[in-house]
Specification:
The structure holds two protein chains of two kinds. Chain A has six helices and 19 strands. By secondary structure, chain A is mainly β. Helix content of chain A is about 15%, strand content about 50%. In chain A, a hairpin with a 4-residue loop joins strand 2 and strand 3. The longest helix of chain A has 16 residues, at about 1-15. Chain A is elongated. Chain B is α+β, with helices and mostly antiparallel strands. The relative contact order of chain B is 0.13. Chain B contains 14 helices and 18 strands. In chain B, the strands form four sheets. Chain B has a seven-stranded mixed beta sheet with strand order 4-7-3-2-1-5-6, sandwiched between helices. A five-stranded antiparallel beta sheet of chain B has the order 14-13-16-17-18, with no helix packed on it. In chain B, strands 8-9-10 form a three-stranded antiparallel beta sheet, with no helix packed on it. The longest helix of chain B is centred in the C-terminal third of the chain and has 20 residues, at about 410-430. Helix content of chain B is about 25%, strand content about 20%. In chain B, a hairpin with a 4-residue loop joins strand 13 (about 465-475) and strand 14. Classes of the chains: A mainly beta, B alpha+beta.
Chain lengths: ~400, ~550
Amino acid sequence: MRARSLVIALVMTVVSANPLSAQIPEPETREEALRREREAKAAQLHPPEPSKLEKTLLDLEAGRLFERILNPAEGLYPKFGSITAGSGFSIGPGYRTTQRLGGAVDFSTFAMGSLKKYWIADARVQLPRLASEHVGLDAHVQSYDFQDELFFGVGPDSSRSDLVTYGLRNTVVGGLAAVRPTSWLTVSGAADFLNPRIDPTTGEAPSIDTRFDDASAPGLADQPDFMRYEGTVDVNLREPRGNPRSGGRYLFTYQRFDDLESNAYSFQRAAAEVQQYLSLFRNRRILALRAMVSASAADQGAQVPFYYLPTLGGPDDLRGFHRDRFSDTHALLLQAEYRWEIFTAVDGAIFYDTGKVASRLEDLNLRDLESDYGFGFRFGSANGVFLRIEAAFGSSDGNHFIFRFNNVF
Amino acid sequence: MRGCVTTFAVLIAIWTAPRAATPRFFPDDPIQVDDDRAVDASGTQEIEGSNAYDFAENTFFSQGDTRDIRAVNVNSVDEVPDSSWFTNRIGRRAMTTAEIARGPNQLDSVNIDDWPIVREKSSGITPGYHVVDPSGQLYQVKFDPPSNPEMASAAEVIGAAIYHAVGYNVVQGYIVEVDPSRIVIAPTASTVDLSGRKRPMTRRDVDRLLARGARLPNGKYRATLSRFADGQNRGFFKYYGTRPDDPNDIHPHEHRRELRAARVFAAWLNHDDSRGINSLDMLEGPEGRRFIKHYMFDFGSIMGSGSTSPQTLRAGNEYIMEWAPGLKTLATLGLYVRPWIRTRYWEGAKSVGRFEGDVFDPVKWRPEYPNPAFGNMRADDGLWAARLVARFSDEVIRAIVAKGGYSEPGAADHIVNTLIKRRDKVLMTWLTGVNPLGDARLGTDGVLEFDNAAVSARVTSAPSRYTLRWSGFDNATNATTGTPVETTTTEPRATAPPALLGPGRRSPISGAQFVTVAIRTTHPNYPVWEMPATFTFRRVSNGWQTVGVDRVVPARRPR
């Protein structure tokens, strides 16, 4: 009996281990084999499950958020970038509407603030499409408060150790008329009311009033209101304009600042700027050159206020120096960049900047220039550079790391 | 006790007896149709595609199974059976030139005057909108760019005709002229503004779109009209994996022959936009027997067209982000200049864009970013595709290009000549990358005839010789039988050893049931042809049926 049980157990074990005993017959045709695979899959179906990243990107694309952020054309949008050099990352709401009142009028407004307590608010009404887009009108109002502006004293020999800070508030109300006979030529005139105000600061660096007075920083004691009149001739042959690879831009500006109170700070300024882009290897290598000269002349017995002096230094001109490191009545800037495409939408750049400021026009020569050099990367498309990362060296002002949301020129 | 022992012995005998293993060839091999409509797919859902995600997942990660294996959906003679993905057309039957040029289109021409606009086109970069015809059928209108009139619309219809003839599912596409005075906007027409909000579409929206279109001298706007595919939209397919909700989708896409080998057609036509996002899955069929049909669409950026501008210099030469040349360029501060930057293009007609055939290299050609199926393509996939490309004669190409309606002098000729030049390079590359023998037939008289695709396409001279190794074949064990017999020939023709076929070689009742012959091809220029192509024949009532084609394939090129 015991042996019989053992045999039965053994038989059962063998039977259960035999694959034939539990299997359905092998398919007899290819069609049947494939159909069985499909029927087996039909028992295990589940809906497609996009990853979180895929869902997020889908939502972004469906809402066109990329376009809204990078190139908003209409409606409410988040505006971000820099308010001005030194403002730090800034963000705020923007709103744009176009082709109102029969299609002629565009309106835009934005407000931005930064962690460094810089803020700006801007609103403008534009009629850019008059006379078949050959004439444009613009009326604007802008108010800003820059709370941490740098000042090192006036002149090319100002000392780095004299660094002070000041706050600059201003409200600008004005209008502009532009005539564009061709796509590359714009002649414009503008008039603006300005009411700049200088404030002392309470930050780490000394406030301007602790180290400078009205003699060493003209206009520090009292800031009048101004009317600024401006005429510009802009020959823009750059291609593409948002991120130039060839062509050039030739800009001449004349400005007249009228002190509306005492004429103590009335002055005029002429500035010329040349940008030239030499294309190599089908626009994949660019030699970009820029020259800018600015000359100011105060009225008889007047001075140019320190806060309206041309300055050099910062992420857009002498990049190896603190922003606004040099200021004086006249300024000269020369920049050269070699740019090369690394990937689509990613360019490398090697640059050299040099320039000087001077109190006398005859001193605006190529002697004793301040200079720097560096390298960087640009991210963007033909429409523009949306991110610029650079490191600048070789100046008497230390090394500088630059992170900006625009092109240098 | 004795009974138990007997039972045990019987069971042991059953267990240890040879299993009825799956045979190498089923009775219905080679299948001509893979019935991937067998199981109802009503439960499938629409898959939305993200351009950014598609780029990122294929650029920064390796997708799908990358093993160097034979395509999994080919039949036993190494061909692609008809399915919801592919219908053999030019490869299986003679098509007239007119039929090829007509492509998927059911109509000769279309006039869309007064067809109401129902919404603005929401995807892609090309301006356009959707209209409905009087029967309610939905179409998409896409405009040519003002800088390059005729470029994108011509590319669209040329691409659709070629892909259709090859065998892919494509939608009907027509070149139309849009008369701005005959545009009608449906009361329910909508657009999505930049804030993502849907709102009614107005004439101003239409004018904004027209401003981005190419205006013809007659005041009309040339555009592509694409008929929406029948059925319900189920999104797109990826070039790897399978749809988890489609019971019929059992073959990983990265190992589907027609998707792997689509790289050859894409290279020929410079279809650098060949990616999952530019595909379409439609749910079709009657209730209870629904299935997904897989389409390729959007050929507006093939050849020299980049849809809204000419192709970039990089297009077809390098991925958007390709590390090696990028880092080389970075490290050398740009002293290293990628070869494609120096490529010169014919600039005689704006409608051509940038399209050339002198520098084109079918192997080095690249889509916009890695495609998992393209990356898995092997030489046998390439051979399959190249044999289809070889069916496009100069005359056929000329007829297809004529459909593009190029009006600029020299434009059509340039497109034709470039397509021919690129076709020849494709053939030279992929007809020679593996032993290119095919179409083997074993006659009742024991005479084997086969085709050397490379020789037939005149891309090379006849080989020095063919070495044939004949054997019997056991279908149950998938092994050759008997002593192999080796013969040689200089022609693609040989007689099988009589002893192998047996006395009944002219009669179906005796002799081997399966015969196999492995053929090595000796050619001084193509040593890889020494890797054999093996053909297996099954005895049938009226002679021999070719049931197996197997090739030894060189290792896949690095991805």
